[in-house]
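Q: Could you fold this chain for me?
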Amino acid sequence: MKKFLLIFAIFFSFPIFSAGAGCGTLLSDDGLQEGVCEHVEIDANNKASLQRGAKLYMNYCFACHSLKYGRYKRVADDLEIPYDIFEKNLMFGEAKIGDLMEISMQEKDSKAWFGAPPPDLTLEVSLHGADWVYSYLKSFYTDEARPLGVNNKVYENVGMPNVLLDLQGEQRSVCKQVPMYAENGGLKQDPLTGEILTQEKCGFLEVVPGTGLLSPEEFDQSMVDLTNFLAYMSDPIKEKREYIGKYVILYLLILLVLSYLLYREFKKDVH
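A: Sure. Below is the predicted structure, expressed as structure tokens.
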């Protein structure tokens, strides 16, 4: 019985890892950190956030990035958007409500324009993780050396224009004076004056004031909504799966108790 309980405990306590990818050098509270993505809270039950995210995606991303493993009707149903409103505001061209969410851009054309066809993003959050996607969306900056005039801290030398430029505004990579840290993690101080020592570090991202339609807080929330929508597209049954999962766990616990009681009855006959 002890072995059975041990196996059961290991099975249900084993951590579930999601696929992910490291970020580039990003600004954090402690300065610049290698491979650390900004964290984003994903809520599959927040219909308002998912609706805002769908609006952003269909207006800013869908021209180049398809969602070909999803259907318009399924998205409208799950996000509780009436079909007439969905068709009027979130569908373009001759697409029908029951169609897959494919784009009209031809692969050969996109390859000529961008160097490579823009990927389908249905499973992007499953591939990279929500934190990576959120950090990527926020990390475009001006880089005159690049063909499209922009680069990205998370995905260096990306061949994609900053389609969110008018919302966020122009973002530049700048240098700043930051505190110096000792090996023990404390701040370095001048032994004579006691002043905290600083050093210049480059790579911090700053938005040029007045160049975007949204405030930094509003833009951050918009990217949370957009990431939330992409997370939904990667796992559209998450809400239902988690709901059913509670009853599955309860069933297994009841089965465990009944199995143990049956085991005890069998042991009586053996002895």
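A (continued): Strands lie at 25-28, 31-34, 67-71, 100-101, 140-142, 150-152, 171-179, 198-207.
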